[in-house]
Amino acid sequence: MSVTTTDNARLITVRQALGDYELHHSQPPDAQAAPAPSPDAHPIPPDAPASNPPGWTDQWRRVPAYRPTNNQLDDQREVYQNEVEHTFVRVMFGGVNMMSSASHLWRTTGGRINSTYFKFKVGGEW
Length: 126
Known about the structure:
Radius of gyration: 34 Å
Number of strands: 0
Shape: flat
């Protein structure tokens, strides 16, 4: 014989509801904790200079100095690698534009009678 038990929703306190969210820290106590290993485990070679060379700027921390935006950069970049790629992209977007125009025309005219045309199934709708 089986027994079914239920909780009375009125008796559950906030403390019981949040019991699943109690944090359990996995850090050892301070007495048992060991120091973290050095992030740079490679020793410094004995013949390496101990300091930076003269004139070495340390203020940027590997961030380059400010450089104004080049607004003419699009004119300098090659968009297509060759004429075949240019033609392919042009024909592809021309087809997308044609399908969009035909769909819009159909929805404003015959689509009111038959709405199954220009409805393409996408992933998960098969």
